[in-house]
Amino acid sequence: MSFNIEILEEKINPLIDRTELKFRIDHFSAGTPNKLDVKKKIAALKNANEKYTIIRKIKTHFGSSYDVGLANIYKNAKELQFYEPFHIQVRNLPKDTREEIYKLKKRKEPFNHLFEYD
After folding, report:
1. CATH code given to domain 4-84
2. What is the C-alpha to C-alpha distance for residues 117 and 27, in angstroms, rounded to an integer?
């Protein structure tokens, strides 16, 4: 799938130790790209660790070939786990890992090792 990402706004938040991005995805004659693909591309653009890059939201505009989204890039896992809600952290993982986390959570078994933060 071919798509381009343009950074519209970049804000460094020193209090939380993260970079907040607003971006635009152009995808001509194709659907909205997968969050994991967008996450990889943003991490590559900003030379950041992919594990600490979180896609908060991607808003699709009906009938157009672009989307606008928000992303946060953290410096360490401690800040990420404290400030990002559980469901957002899970949403930024591969599908099989998400399913495993929800199964373990339902059975009240430990699942934090599946997030793979260093």
Report:
1. 3.30.70.330
2. 31
Angstrom distance (rounded) from CA 105 to CA 114: 11
| For the chain, domain boundaries | 4-84
pLDDT digits (tens, 9 = 90+) for 2-54: 789 999 999 999 999 999 999 999 988 788 888 999 999 999 999 999 999 99
Q: Are 5 and 38 in contact (CB under 8 A)?
A: yes
Quote the CA–CA distance of 21 and 58 in Å, as a whole number. 12
User: Phi/psi of residue 94, each to 5°?
Assistant: -60, 155
Give the distance, in angstroms, between the CA of residue 2 and the centroid of all CA atoms in the same chain: 19
Please tell me the pTM assigned to this model. Answer: 0.88
3-state secondary structure of 71: strand
